[in-house]
Amino acid sequence: METRHHADRVIERTHASNDLSPLTASWRRSALRHGLDPAAGVRDCRLTGPELAARREAMGHFLTVAAKPVDELYRLVSGSGCAVLLTDADGILLDRRASAADAGVFDGWALAPGADWSEAAQGTNGVGTCLAEGRGVIIHRDQHFLSANTGMSCIDAPIHGPDGQIIAALDVSSARADATEAMNALIAAMVGQSARAIEAAWFRAAFPGARIVMAGDGVEALVAVDRDDLAIGATRAARRMLGLPRTGALKPRPLSDLLAEAQGRDAEPGGFDRAERAAVIRALARAEGNVTAAARALGIGRATLYRRMARLGISPAQAASRN
Predict the structure, then answer these.
(1) What is the dihedral of CA 213, 219, 221, 223, to 10 degrees?
(2) SS3 call for 33
(3) Which of 77, 103, 279, 303 is most deeply packed, by most CB within 10 A?
(4) Residues 146, 158: Cα–Cα separation, whole Å
(5) What is the CATH number of the domain that holds 68?
């Protein structure tokens, strides 16, 4: 009866034209786009052993880099009977941390390596909805689309790669009946922080020869800079802070230009411009601001010097005052 009641409520809200909540939008995707029945039982959609091995091999370096933050998160939540899960961008569960005592419970929920937890497979759930919407989510018990999943709470955050695209989801799942909204909110903060730590570690690993600098106060706003001081990569937070494209490879640009533009200043001259500016200022200073004499000393025409002075932001008075 309880299963039928939940399924009826899901269908009723799915067809309610005045309900524009994010949860109902996910329920609609589950029912209308993916054709799922909220009254269905546990859907154990799982890859074969070789299929899972291939997925893990493709993500092998990432899983190694993510292992420490995942272990630290599990250490924080394991005492409350939670499992920590890491999936790929398709919602396939690649790695799990759970106590031996709780492993059977999570296996029974189909929260096991190789399981497909996309919205298309399971309807509204932490992993699938997080990946579908590209944001952190809390799906608490009867917020799940399938009645069979309403015994658990799922708390997720997306993980973005160096190109800004989502590459994984980090999940904490619990089947505790006494889970509260306050507890879920606290866990969600930890999940989000751990996801950002994984992003930062993976970003550093993606640019092994580069200098990594912070673009702001947040430790997740990182920029990779090559030996010529050109910015060649940026985390999602840095892209947002510096006004860069949200996704895709970055076109190398001087780091000083990016930081100046972000702060609303004109970009400082580059290396060649700085050298040219210094040479023009020295010539003008020696000529006490006389443009004709300075141009003669530089071996260029007077009109040419005026054009260069305009481009470099130099006035004769400024140069003369340095003499």
Answers:
(1) 20
(2) helix
(3) 77
(4) 22
(5) 3.30.450.40
Alpha helices in 207-249, H assignment, sequence order: 236-242
Q: Which domain holds residue 135?
A: 2-205
| Distances, alpha carbon 4 to alpha carbons 1, 33, 120, 149, 187, in Å | 5, 21, 21, 13, 30
For residues 189 and 196, give the distance between their C-alpha atoms in angstroms, rounded to a whole number: 11
Q: Tell me which of 205, 232, 249 is where a domain ends.
A: 205
Co-location of 109 and 192 in the same domain: yes
Backbone torsions φ then ψ of 91, nearest 5 degrees: 85, 15
126/254 same-domain check = no
Say what the pTM is: 0.78
Please give the structure tokens belonging to residue 232.
Answer: 């060649």
Dump pLDDT digits (tens) for 171-204.
999 987 777 788 889 999 999 999 999 999 999 9
Tell me: the pLDDT tens digits for 194-244? 999 999 999 999 999 898 988 776 678 899 998 888 899 999 999 988 889
Q: What is the DSSP letter of 29?
A: I
Q: What is the C-alpha separation between 141 and 138, in angstroms, rounded?
A: 10
SS3 150: coil
Element (H, E) at 258: helix 255-262
**CA–CA separation, 30 and 225 (whole Å):** 43
Q: Please tell me the distance from the alpha carbon of residue 285 to that of residue 196, in angstroms, as a whole number.
A: 52
Euclidean distance between CA atoms 152 and 121, whole angstroms: 17
Q: Enter the DSSP assignment of 142.
A: G
- The 8-class DSSP code of residue 232 comes to E
Instruction: Examine the domain organization and report whether 15 and 147 are in the same domain.
Output: yes
Integer-rounded Cα radius of gyration of the chain: 28
Q: Are residues 222 and 200 in the same domain?
A: no
The H-assigned helical ranges of 87-235 are 100-108, 119-122, 126-133, 181-206
